[in-house]
Write a structure and sequence with these properties.
The protein contains 14 helices and eight strands. With 325 residues, the protein is α/β, with parallel strands linked by helices. The protein has an eight-stranded mixed beta sheet with strand order 3-2-1-4-5-6-7-8, sandwiched between helices. Helix 9 (184-212) crosses helix 13 (285-297). The longest helix has 29 residues, at 184-212.
Length: 325
């Protein structure tokens, strides 16, 4: 299948690479030329503008936008909607606000163009591990794109099948699901990222307590090797996870995490999750505390903040901002 890919940053370029490795054809565009040329050398068809990208796609066309949420995505989706024809598909695979998806889908529907929102998780590791995808949009468009989603997803791998799953969507076992109508994919991904905040904060605080044991009085003083603690917890512990794997990698390389300042950004989804919780009157004590901890990290920073920053770099390649107040 052929797909247009707009935005060749940390994830966009690797999405295209994974598709090409699985036999799909990609037409690619980026605001700067370097990533386009790099992917062209690997077999993609480069383009010099959105107009050029659309012209190089076979009909019925499908284009995937992988840009920062907000105006960059808004402008690109709008322009693609102007350039594409009835029955074609615009996909937003970034981290857009789900209410924006609903509005965009309605606007494109007036021209007969499908809009599909894809909450995409996998970060900089997705090229090899695959991407977990939470998809919103009408069933016709999602079904047409299924070969793309199947190629990008991790597949069942060696994870044991969950007992009692008969009757549920089998695609979930491969790492992607059709959540429902427009906006639902990004809604599920939004809550996914809110939960991520809470999990990361729990690990960060726990390891901070372990590190502080070196300052406890007398016989209660323990000089714990945090890299070893993280490693042993990875193996058979009920709190093992990919985030813990990344923590172990970071601590093995730098046990005091001195390479991190501890200024922890939030990319929007945590705030949106809390907004949805408030609108539905759902208590979200842990998730709200985790978000506030990130705000606090921008005023005074701790070992726990450095660990959060290390995890964010580990899964998403997020780099701490250079200029801080």
């Amino acid at each position: 299948m052929q797909l247009g890919m707009v935005g060749l940053g940390r994830m966009g370029a690797n999405l295209a690479r994974r598709l090409m490795r699985n036999g799909h054809r990609c037409v690619v565009f980026n605001r700067t030329r370097g990533p386009v040329d790099a992917l062209a050398r690997e077999g993609a068809v480069g383009s010099s503008s959105l107009e050029d990208l659309v012209a190089k796609l076979d009909k019925p066309r499908a284009a995937w936008v992988m840009l920062p949420a907000g105006q960059p995505t808004e402008n690109t989706v709008s322009e693609l909607g102007r350039l594409m024809d009835q029955g074609e598909i615009v996909i937003d695979g970034g981290n857009s606000f789900y209410k924006d998806d609903i509005r965009r889908a309605q606007a494109l529907q007036t021209r007969g163009i499908h809009y599909v929102d894809v909450g995409t998780s996998g970060g900089v590791w997705g090229l090899e591990r695959g991407y977990c995808m939470m998809i919103g949009g009408d069933a016709e468009a999602v079904l047409r794109l299924d070969p793309i989603f199947a190629a990008l997803a991790p597949g069942p791998g060696n994870i044991p099948r969950t007992p009692g799953r008969d009757g549920h969507d089998p695609r979930a076992e491969s790492g992607y699901i059709h959540c429902g109508p427009s906006g639902s994919g990004h809604f599920v991904k939004m809550v996914h990222n809110g939960i991520e905040y809470g999990l990361m904060q729990a690990y960060a605080e726990g390891f901070s307590i372990l590190g502080a044991a070196a300052e406890r009085p007398g016989a209660e003083r323990y000089e714990l090797d945090l890299a070893d603690v993280a490693e042993v917890w990875r193996r058979g512990s009920v709190i093992s996870s990919w985030l813990l794997d990344l923590t172990a990698i970071a601590l093995a390389a730098d046990s005091k995490l001195e390479g991190f300042d501890g200024y922890v950004e939030d990319s929007g989804e945590g705030r949106w999750t809390l907004m949805a919780a408030i609108e539905s009157a759902v208590p979200a004590n842990v998730l709200s505390a985790a978000l506030y901890a990130r705000f606090r990290s921008r005023e005074e920073r701790s070992f726990a903040d450095r660990m959060l920053s290390a995890m964010r770099k580990g899964f998403g390649g997020h780099v701490e901002p250079k200029a801080r107040g």
